[in-house]
Amino acid sequence: MDSEKKWYMFDGPVDAVWIENMNTVLDDNKKLCLSSGEIIKLTDVMTMMFEVQDLAVASPATVSRCGMVYLEPSILGLQPFTECWLRRVPEALRAFAEQLDSLFARFLQDSVAFVRTSVKEVITSLDSNLTCSLLKLMDCFFKPYVRKEGERPPPQDKLERLKELIEPWFFFSLVWSVGGTGDAASCQRFNW
Q: What is the Cα–Cα distance from 107 to 130, expressed in whole angstroms?
């Protein structure tokens, strides 16, 4: 039998029915009863971890069976989001990871702080949502450089232009994500 530790990660919202079905695996008998009727016995080397936003629909019985680690979103900051995103940047753009990291460090947190203090938001947002929106917009610019299996790499002249495009792409994405939640007057203030 394999004695190497195994972690099973469940990431997502807590569904009341789903989490109640997890009670059997959280009990001392450690049996996972699937809706198909199949029963899976967890061994001592198996650990289950749940990463959830809140426990609003989880019963006290379920919560009491789990060890809890709570992280206030403000404690994490925005760097874990950008670091994770930079690790999966397309190969053609990896040479610019340091430049991108520098742009994030210089402008992202200050821009979000400006939104929090000087912008009247039309739609309330979280710092993490603004950051994820920025990263998704950056992904749109990078999409043509994502090489699929069997495809030729982008032409050299296209790759050479990247150095001059990274910064404008970043600022466009920053303005339309972090700066895009404010009313008209706030948008003018954000347009420094």
A: 13
